[in-house]
Amino acid sequence: xxxxxxxxxxxxxxxxxxAWVFRWQVELEAEVRFxxxxxxxxxxxxxxxIVELARRAAGEEARHAVLCxxxxxxxxxxxxxxxxxxxxxxxxxxxxxxxxxxxxxxAACCVTESVSVAVLxxxxxxxxxxxxxxxxxELLADEVGHARLGWAHLxxxxxxxxxxxxxPLLPAMLEGSVDEDLFLPVEPxxxxxxxxxxxxxxxxxxxxxxxxSLEEVVFPGLExxxxxxxxGRAWLAARAGAAGDAPASR
Amino acid sequence: xARSTKTEVSKLLRVLVxxxxxxxxxxxxxxxxxxxxxxxEQGAAAKAKDKPAAKHKGKAKEKAKEDAKxxxxxxxxxxxxxxx
Lengths: 250, 84
What we know:
The complex is a heterodimer of chains A (250) and B (84). Chain A is mainly α and 250 residues long. Chain A has a single domain (10-81, 98-242), classed as Ferritin. Chain A is 64% helix and 0% strand. Chain A has 7 helices and no strands. In chain A, helix 1 runs antiparallel to helix 3 (97-123), helix 2 packs antiparallel against helix 4 (130-159) and helix 3 (97-123) packs across helix 6 (203-224). The longest helix of chain B is centred in the N-terminal third of the chain and has 24 residues, at 3-26. Chain B is flat. At the A-B interface, helix 1, helix 2, helix 3, helix 4 and helix 5 of A face helix 1, helix 2 and helix 4 of B.
């Protein structure tokens, strides 16, 4: 295991570069997703403030992609020349448009952006280079706004009595939000603390932060918005149990 | 997990969720205007309120609809959004 002041092993640097390339892709997909959601929200007669926030988020995600590409390049791995294809729809095909938009905003903002804020908050104090610290701060400030967009939409949907349908769908939504190996053991290099100063969480810490974010932010937030989170909690308990993790203490 | 990280996560409920609800409140008047576009729906909702039996029936119907959706979700490509 590497320690403070020691050179970063090549494998750790490769893993960090690969994580930043993946984030570049995620941010470009988010740009497309938010642009589409802004148009769909407008068509549904959503409040102007919400539409504008979604539109602004699309622009911010484009800027994030540039930051992620720069970090990947600094670690020795330039991003591909071609952008990734547009992201697939994540809402079940049987939902009406209003519910589909609520599903997508919940998945993208209430779950994924909320967890991203937790990840960035954990990464910020460990950031090594000033350029990384600046990038993480910029990303964090914007992602807070993106998460709030989802929670704001959900609060408005609740006023209209249109959130309860999400409860039974939470396991599929959560399953699709995690890497296949999040709850599995991984190669030792992925647990290296030396990843942290490069802006990447060691695997076990990432898993723990994900679980804690669900338990302390996402599930209580959903329940406050009239969504029964029992199915989501059961999904997390089953996945964490299979990984041998004790549920996070409250 | 470091104690400071645990504390930070617990703060996020207020920062994100409560912050989002405040945003929704700020967007409130526009939401009301959007609702005004569907007076027929509002009338139907008011009628349902006056009839408890109808309300109960509506809830059961809604629950059945949700259960059906959960089943459908498995076959319909329901998924999530990957992030950091």
